[in-house]
């Protein structure tokens, strides 16, 4: 059963920093975050189903595709693919990945550029540093996403990045609670 969320979001220059604590052991949360079979159960906001590929190692690649279900309004229809590379992979403490949304639809990309007030394709890439901290049987997860500019960061926030991550981490919480029994 999901616990009450302590999801927090702060910003710093070019960054969005999200934290959440899970009532589950460090290794369990880390594996749920990184292994394909688990990613497919939690990644994506409510109303999406996910397929994933993940090669969790330094230099390994991942690809995650969120598929809108019929439960969502028509404006969300379609697939939302993200691909990336694990720049650092230190089990069970830290991941650094570079991700790209360049495979998203042209319509979505145009909307993102408008929100970010840019015409540059830099808008489709980001770095993320994800840390997992042992709190004595609980795990604190911190996701620090870094963008090319503050305008791009703000554009992602305007398009619902924080809400999407919050809902994804709710789903991750359900998964780790179910697995931790």
Explain this structure.
This protein starts with 7 loop residues before the first strand and ends with a helix. 30% of the residues lie in helices and 36% in strands. The chain has 181 residues and is of the alpha+beta class. It is globular, with a radius of gyration of 16 Å.
Put the structure in a nutshell:
The protein has 5 helices and 8 strands; from the N terminus they run ββααββββαββαα. The chain is of the alpha+beta class.
Provide the descriptors you would attach to this structure in a database record.
eight-stranded antiparallel beta sheet; 181 residues; globular
Indicate the topology.
Blueprint: E1 8-12, E2 15-22, H1 26-34, H2 36-42, E3 48-54, E4 61-68, E5 79-90, E6 94-100, H3 106-116, E7 125-134, E8 139-146, H4 150-158, H5 161-179
Antiparallel strand pairs: 1-2, 2-8, 3-4, 4-5, 5-6, 6-7, 7-8
Q: Can you tell me the residue ranges where pLDDT is under 50 for at least 5 consecutive residues? A: none
Q: How much helix is in the residues?
A: 25-40%
β-sheet strand percentage: 35-45%
Q: Biggest sheet, open or closed, and with what strands and sense?
A: 8 strands, antiparallel
H/E element sequence: EEHHEEEEHEEHH
Oligomer: single chain
Arithmetic mean pLDDT = 94
Structural class: alpha+beta
